[in-house]
Specification:
mainly alpha; Glutaredoxin; Glutathione S-transferase Yfyf (Class Pi), Chain A, domain 2; 2 domains; 4-stranded mixed sheet; 55% helix
Length: 204
């Protein structure tokens, strides 16, 4: 299998963490839709990353679909519970974390446009999503060790990758001071090899 993604994508990192937790071999191909000669649109008509290219040449896209597939093909370190209600709860956490990350990515992309073309209202709307989302994640986590139940799941993977992206692109946000329980979760996640080995490089 080949995973096509830039190292800084929170969605690509989520897939890489899952691959590491499940000990699945793959080849990472670093590419971005921002590269002028990228081939991503030939694999995903939406032109988005990550894309998982299966051994038979079929592409899978959308990180949520990819991690679902990966969790089903290997019994190692199951990250989505078998019981339906618990599985939906885990996927709900993933959707919230991905939504926060998506809003953050949209702000980053907007700020790359010429200043005179940027929309302050658009940026503010995305920032409000981030703020509300973090408040919800912190409230739902409360004083628990993991997001869902007593075990590490895909919910923790998604939240950890989202927090890592905020650290990478929004250091001024200082979310850890406002939500110390999320900072404690991040600390627990950072000691896992899957998170340490996929930490995104600092922007240049």
């Amino acid at each position: 299998m080949k995973l096509i993604s830039p190292l800084t994508s929170p969605f690509g990192r989520k897939v890489r963490v899952v691959l590491a937790e499940k000990h699945i071999d793959y080849q990472l191909v670093e590419d971005s839709p921002l590269n002028p000669d990228n081939q991503i649109a030939t694999l995903n008509p939406l032109g988005k990353v990550p894309v998982l290219l299966l051994d038979d040449g079929r592409p899978l896209y959308d990180s949520s679909v990819i991690v679902d597939y990966l969790d089903q093909i290997s019994p190692v370190s199951k990250l989505i519970p078998a019981e339906h209600r618990q599985a939906i709860n885990v996927k709900r956490w993933e959707a919230l974390a991905d939504g926060i990350a998506d809003a953050a990515v949209l702000i980053v992309m907007e700020k790359r446009r010429p200043v005179e073309q940027q929309s302050a209202d658009w940026i503010a709307r995305q920032q409000a999503k981030i703020d509300r989302g973090l408040e919800c994640v912190a409230t739902d986590l409360a004083d628990r060790k993991w997001c869902v139940g007593d075990a590490f799941t895909l919910a923790d993977v998604a939240v950890g990758c989202m927090l890592g992206y905020l650290d990478l692109r929004f250091s001024e946000l200082d979310w850890a001071s406002r939500h110390p329980n999320l900072a404690e979760l991040r600390t627990r996640l950072d000691v896992r090899a899957s998170f340490g080995d996929t930490r995104p490089p600092l922007p240049v």
